[in-house]
Automatic annotation (TrEMBL):
Highest taxon in the source lineage: Bacteria
InterPro entries registered for this protein in UniProt: DUF433, Homeodomain-like_sf, WH-like_DNA-bd_sf
Gene3D superfamilies: Winged helix-like DNA-binding domain superfamily/Winged helix DNA-binding domain
Organism annotation: Rhizobium herbae
A family per Pfam: DUF433
SUPFAM superfamilies: Homeodomain-like
Descriptive protein name: DUF433 domain-containing protein
Length: 74
C-alpha cells in the first residue's frame, strides 16, 4: 500500500521542500539517516512524532523521484 500521501509540500515551511505530514521533518533528513545506516527503529526513536509509514513514504518518494524517462538521441 502506498504511503506517498504522507508527503507534504508547503512553500511556507522548510523552504518548500517535501516534509512528512507537515511536521517540519524533511524527507531528505529521513533519507540521509537511512543512507547513513540508521534503522527504522532508530529514526522513530529520534523523531517520536514520526510513524513507520512516514519512513516508508520517504523511501517511496525517493524511488519515484529516481524513475525518470530516458531520452535517446539519434
Amino acid at each position: 500500500m502506498s504511503e506517498i500521501h504522507r508527503i507534504t509540500v508547503d512553500p511556507e515551511q522548510c523552504g518548500g521542500r517535501p516534509t512528512l505530514r507537515n511536521l517540519r521533518i524533511r524527507v531528505k533528513d529521513v533519507l540521509d539517516l537511512l543512507a547513513a545506516g540508521a534503522s527504522h527503529a532508530e529514526i522513530l526513536q529520534d523523531y517520536p512524532a514520526l510513524e513507520e509509514g512516514d519512513v516508508l513514504a520517504a523511501l517511496e518518494y525517493a524511488a519515484r523521484q529516481s524513475d525518470h524517462t530516458v531520452l535517446h538521441v539519434a
